[in-house]
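Narrative summary of target 7.
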Amino acid sequence: MTTTRSMTRAEEIYKRLRADILNGRHEPGSRLRVEALKDSYGASSGVIREALPRLVGQGLATFAPQRGFRVVTVSPERLKELTEARVFIETHVVRESVAAGTIEWESDLLAAHHHLARTPYFSDDGALSERWLNAHARFHRVLLEGCPNRQLRDIATQLRDAAEVYRCWARTPAEHSHRDVAAEHQMICDRAIARDVPGVVEALSQHINITTQLLLNDYGRHEEKGKQDPGPPCGC
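Modeled conformation, tokenized:
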């Protein structure tokens, strides 16, 4: 029973740490000190030490002797590499998903899209809503769940999670622009349900690439502004 409780607690802390990294509460490159995390999350050192290696495995943190655990660093070059990898993997997985997805998968995808479309984009304080981020992640996860190859699905999820850290670059969310992100999600969903493989591949590729380009543009503006008015490196 004690082991089960410990595993459950470690899972809970892992999920909280993961969410806090993805939502920018731990800045890219920042140290993840066991003692500080223990106090912040109200967990034992053992539980924290169980959770941290899982973040490394997800590509959200790094570990080096003498330096310990850190949130993964960000750079334009790495974002470009992640985007190339995501498009390559996710378009393959979505092909398999659309081809093999069952009626139950269609129902789950429609439900995930409905939830995303009905979730407010901003929270009451004007920040990007955590509920929207969770609904967004769920939609993209369900989109690929028709693929029977779990290993490919896991790789796609890992790459997407690693790319989410780059939202910290943006002072304003990448989706909050002249872009109609709701229409993009609608198109992806419609083409998947219609079993339009070339169409959903095209829509998903554009969706990923547009987000990356907006983040890179925003990062470039911050870099230029930072030369004139140095400030925090991350707009979390």
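Residues 227-236 have pLDDT under 50 and may be disordered.
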